[in-house]
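Quick note —
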Amino acid sequence: MRFELLGPLCIADNEHSVVLQPSRPSSLLATLLIHSGTVVSVDYLLHTVWDTEPPTTARAALQSCVLRLRRLFAKYGIAYDTIESVPGGYRMRLEASTLDLIHFRELVALAGSAADAEAEAGALRQALSLWQGPVLANVSSQVLHRDEVPRLTEERLRALERLCDIELAQGRCGQVLTEVWDAARRHPERERFSEQLMEALYRTGRQTEALLVFDTVMERLREDFGIDPGAPLQRLRLSILRGEDLGRAVGAARTTAALLTSPPGTPIPAALPPAPADTSAQAPAQALAAAPNPPQVQQPSSTVLFGSAYSSARSSEAAPVAEGPPPAESAAVPPVPCFAGRETQLDSLERTLTGTPHGSLIVVSGAPGIGKTALALQAAHRVHQTFPGGCSVVTMTDEDGSPRDSGELERELALGRTGDGRRLLILDDAVNAEQVRRLLLPPSQGATIVTSRRRLSGLAASHGSEVQRLDVLSEAEAEELLIKLLGPTRVTREPGAARSLARVCGYFPLSLRIAAARLTTRPRLMIGDCTKWLSADLVPRLHLTDEPHVSVLHVFRSALQRLDPELRNAFIDLAAAPRSTSAGSVLSAPEEVLDQLDEAGFIEEGPPEPYRIHSLFQVYARHSASVPALPAMPPA
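Predicted structure written out below.
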């Protein structure tokens, strides 16, 4: 005889099974089975059997329930002492052959030690076959359904996720559809199932259905939880829209051994080799390089998005730095997705960071949205082998643009070390030189790249920093970026419209990526039509509806908020004036004002004029001149 817990609670042999009726003895039995092999206290048993506050006679009633179970066991030939009375509680001692939960866990453990993917998948299939429906469907205990059933269900879902990852990695997309479809429908909050379903559909030639899955998930998440799908699911959708060749599972594959110990949602390095493409897939072969995922850089409080860094709230639940691979691999930094241009600047940074003697401090400055963070990270990707101690990225400002607490920054920096040896530190969006000085690495310990809208001349004076001042992309670099974002076919079809789009966007990486994101999610929209639509009201329309912070208006307004009100108003007047890029117009402002605006990244030194203002700033200034003044920046 054996007990079955992974479904309706029952007692079974090889031919028959007896499904127990909802009762207090059934709740007691379920509690003991879930905690088989351990002592379950009387207090906890009273809690699960009675749900509410137990009566004064509950302890005596609990003994009666135990007696009823022993009588039931005797009827089916189960030993009387299967339920042991021990000091303070009761315990059931069972083996895998007599309890399906133990058997399930042993099979999952066996999968974790399997020699190859096929053996792992076989063990997981056998483990999952033990589940016969909703756990404890015939047990009335609300406490068990609240506290224990979700934990057991989580074990099953994680095993199913892993099995589907293996099937996708092996190219068996058609077979995985049946297993993952129901899971995605029943568990929309577990977006990995939706990813697997979308990938399986797409790789079997069902692109439209794959995109409909995303729309359904987004609708349910917004309705039930008030959130949008996460970044992996959105990246997969973009890959499908672009017609990329996914090749293997897009989400992070997990080893079964890791499933036994890691909490839900913990990323585990992929253990499977790349799989051949599914022979039944009919997806378009046009492929762009997929964005690398996930990054290995420690980024406690910044997200690289559209070529710039946008501060995000630092979660108290941020994962600690885990013990990783050997130092040389820990230091690996992924390339920035769809990075384009800046070859001269990248070559200069690489020479400085890897030359002899190594450079120890570089400042990358420039206007907001011009791609400073992207350049720093791309340079880190190129030189990561020079820094076995790893690369740390620390955002220097809060969401409102105010400088972060220095003590907090130092603690974050201390967490960033991922190996021994020289390390690379990226201090992103620094407010002033003083904020940076106390965090700089000594030359013997590594190098520091500081990104800032300001030139940070004080660092050049005190530490001899190298300065890279970024301007907008060239026309050729802007076209290269659009090709990487939209695909060569789409850009080649409308080369003139693509050049017009780059010009309208002022050759700013931020504005180009926002415009490309709109086009990517609207595959039937012509580039020329998008350019005309943007031109009619450029600055307000350069935004993404589902990402309020990804907006030219938001980024420029946030940058201006850091200036003193007088300097802010001077810039708006200067940029909004007719022919404001001419020497006479710009030089009509006091030299001190021009110098401060140049330092802050809002105007640039020539040529051809002594000072000039980027065209996108001029459009923004004309727009801002008609809206209420910005509130003053709170004191730092």
